[in-house]
Design a protein that fits this description.
about 15% strand, alpha/beta, single chain, about 550 residues
């Protein structure tokens, strides 16, 4: 067994090295495709992230079959397509359009590197001059599934970019482990199920027969689940210890789900009203007093989860608190625990995690059999615990509101670029993206049974949560409050930054670990104290 594990680890190192090399390389054409001088050559820049290339390669094949006078050549990059670097290179690049992970939209508009695509976005697709044939009568604007995105990308009646994908952040759990160890709560909520056929509790969404049945609905059940796991020798969870934003976002997902979209969005708009705990009347939130939002009850709920996790070292992998633990190493630890002495039940990560871990899945399947392959092992999305007084319905946190598709304002092939952009937003191609990557795009479209059959168990549970009519989406980085736009450094630690007695922090779990006497109330007061100069700086 030791030899087998060592062989796997060696294979993983080789695969990881190869993956890193591939990510840094450019890929402009396939081995059998040659430039046709009689056709328009269109160049597409694609952020080389966690989605792989298959979706774009398929989109190009489908596009070229319809638009026979155009050839499309993709360029895959990562560092060069990062926000600050890309904005300096767009004007001189050969790429006619881009699909990238994040841009600061206003900066790009001000630099005048984004083409006006209003006609692409607002014209009904069956009337668009860029679409050869379709029965779709809605415009792309009408298909965007979140009014907040419409408001963000519509600048004085004009569009310069379209939202690309939705990356939902939260917790992933091992379904096979949960079933084999019977870690679901029973219907009466008196304990855990005794066998796999036994009816389960309704879960956080309060509805029977949905994706979250049997999962913990509040912090009390969460503690029972964590204790049950440690009692039978399971490590409950692991995460990326190197990048604090992973745990920051997970806690934010709890905060958002407790508050609901309207209350959570106050943190981005500084406009509306909120009833604080103990108050009988709502407080009108404006830029003058928005620091009071640090007292939102959803923050207390999330900090209570942080204190719970930090309260027992058996609740998490020791690697999760190491600065050397990257997101890929956390994924590797989570997956390979199934061939080691101690299983790990849950992983803090986002929608894209299976794509990032693809090589680990392949390595495990090669060495241990197809039972370990991606799509065979079952994982699912774990909704946040609700708690008393929480907003009804489900609110999911998207960390990709700034991911966009746009046309280069300096492209000499504007017509062809707009055709490709329009084609990519037909329902069929939105479906194919989700089918191939497991990741939703922020548009109104429905997957077919065939699409869902091709997706992993995780992709299906995420889609169930995402497409539920009682689900709303919030974003962690789409701001409209003038202060948040004009003073980004002042708000950089808005989520969990606190001035505590032993100094400033922005990592609740680390703070609760370092000082077990630190209370949630004290941490929340520290968040208020951090903005004690609000009147001078903002108000």
């Amino acid at each position: 067994m030791k030899k087998k594990i060592l062989s796997f680890l060696l294979l993983f190192v080789l695969l990881f090295t190869a993956s890193g090399f591939a990510t840094a390389c450019r890929h402009d054409d396939g081995p059998s495709k040659k430039v046709d001088p009689n056709k328009t050559q269109l160049y597409v820049g694609v952020y080389e992230g966690a989605f792989g290339r298959e979706w774009m390669e398929q989109l190009i094949v489908d596009f070229e079959a319809v638009y026979t006078d155009i050839q499309v050549w993709p360029t895959y990059e990562k560092d060069l397509y990062a926000d600050a670097k890309l904005i300096e290179n767009v004007k001189s690049s050969k790429e006619d359009l881009y699909f990238v992970s994040a841009i600061t939209y206003s900066n790009y508009i001000n630099k005048e590197v984004l083409a006006d695509i209003t006609d692409v976005v607002t014209t009904p697709l069956n009337e668009s001059k860029y679409i050869i044939s379709t029965e779709e009568t809605k415009s792309i604007e009408e298909k965007i599934n979140n009014p907040e995105l419409v408001s963000y990308y519509n600048r004085d009646g004009k569009y310069y970019a379209l939202p690309f994908y939705d990356a939902i952040f939260g917790l992933v759990y091992d379904v096979d482990l949960f079933e084999s160890k019977r870690l679901y709560f029973n219907k009466a909520e008196t304990g855990f199920i005794g066998n796999i056929e036994q009816p389960r509790s309704v879960g956080p969404d309060g509805k029977e027969g949905t994706y979250d049945d049997g999962l913990p609905k509040d912090l009390d059940q969460w503690k029972k689940l964590l204790d049950r796991m440690t009692d039978i020798g399971i490590i409950p969870m692991t995460w990326n210890g190197k990048n604090a934003s992973y745990m920051e976002r997970y806690l934010m997902s709890i905060w958002a789900d407790y508050e609901g979209k309207a209350n959570f969005d106050l943190n981005n708009t500084f406009s509306g009203e909120y009833t604080f705990p103990g108050d009988s009347q709502p407080t009108q939130i404006t830029q003058e007093n928005a620091y009071l939002l640090q007292k939102q009850e959803g923050k207390r709920q999330a900090l209570s989860m942080a204190k719970l996790i930090a309260s027992d070292t058996d609740y998490y992998s020791p690697n999760a608190i190491l600065p050397s633990q990257t997101h890929t190493l956390a994924q590797n630890e989570f997956l390979t625990s199934s061939i080691k002495n101690q299983r790990i039940a849950m992983l803090v990560d986002a929608t894209w995690w299976e794509n990032e871990a693809d090589l680990v899945f392949k390595g495990m399947a090669d060495l241990n059999g197809n039972d370990y392959a991606r799509g065979v092992r079952r994982f699912a999305f774990m909704p946040a615990p609700k708690g008393e007084g929480a907003n009804e319905g489900t609110t999911l946190l998207s960390v990709s509101g700034m991911s966009v598709a746009f046309v280069n304002a300096y492209s000499q092939k504007m017509d062809a670029a707009k055709k490709f952009l329009s084609f990519a937003h037909l329902d069929e191609n939105l479906r194919k993206f989700t089918k191939m990557t497991g990741v939703p795009r922020p548009y109104k479209y429905e997957l077919t049974e065939e699409d869902r059959a091709a997706m992993s168990y995780f992709g299906n549970t995420l889609y169930d949560a995402y497409s539920d009519p009682d689900t709303e989406i919030v974003f962690n980085m789409i701001y409209t409050a003038p202060a948040r736009l004009q003073m980004p450094s002042y708000f950089v630690d808005w989520s969990w930054g606190a001035n505590l007695s032993d100094g400033p922090t922005k990592e609740p779990i680390k703070a609760f670990r370092a000082d077990p006497t630190l209370t949630v109330d004290a941490y929340m007061q520290g968040m208020l104290d951090k903005y004690s100069d609000w009147a001078q700086k903002v108000g």
